[in-house]
From TrEMBL:
Belongs to the MGMT family. Pfam families: DNA_binding_1, Methyltransf_1N. It comes from Vibrio navarrensis. Its EC number is 2.1.1.63. CDD domains: ATase. The lineage of its organism: Bacteria, Pseudomonadati, Pseudomonadota, Gammaproteobacteria, Vibrionales. Residues 76-155 form the Methylated-DNA-[protein]-cysteine S-methyltransferase DNA binding domain. This is Methylated-DNA--protein-cysteine methyltransferase.
Length: 159
């Protein structure tokens, strides 16, 4: 069974979805990648409660790393990319090329970009930390303005 809740954030409402194994997704309400069927609404589900606590700590500057069980579904390649995203240090950015190199597949830059864009767990799996090779902000399912806000917040918080 899947459970969800909708919560406020400094960047607008977020929808969090989980099952008993972990977080399935965290989306801003404007993201088109959010599924239509979220399951049963339950703000008191323990995984959702833990995620809300950690997200609030992140937004208040008290948390730089997340310690949440992730149960997101994707292809083996997507999951490999999403796992690599979790190794990007807080306050840093990587290019898509660096991410492709990290997974041991330097020629897969485009595929890495596509997998990055399908990441269902915003902020916790920090796809916002991936930028173009030229240093420019590139697509973010939550919106470029949110990506910029997150990166500025992290770089201003220090490490």
């Amino acid at each position: 069974m899947n459970y969800y809740t909708i919560a406020p954030s400094p960047l607008g409402e977020m929808t969090l979805q989980a099952n008993d194994e972990g977080i399935l997704g965290i989306w801003f309400t404007t993201q088109t990648t959010r599924p239509d069927d979220l399951g049963q609404e339950d703000a008191n589900h323990p995984v959702l409660g833990l995620a809300l606590t950690q997200l609030n700590e992140y937004f208040s500057g008290k948390r730089t790393q997340f310690d949440l069980p992730i149960a997101a579904k994707g292809t083996a390649f997507q999951m490999q990319v999403w796992q690599a995203l979790t190794t990007i240090p807080y306050g840093e950015t990587w290019s898509y090329q660096e991410l492709a190199n990290t997974i041991g597949n330097p020629k897969a830059v485009r595929a890495v970009g596509l997998a990055n864009g399908k990441n269902p767990v915003s902020i916790v799996v920090p796809c916002h930390r991936v930028i173009g090779k030229n240093g420019k902000l590139t697509g973010y399912a939550g919106g470029i303005e949110r990506k910029q806000w997150l990166l500025e917040r992290e770089s201003n918080q220090g490490r």
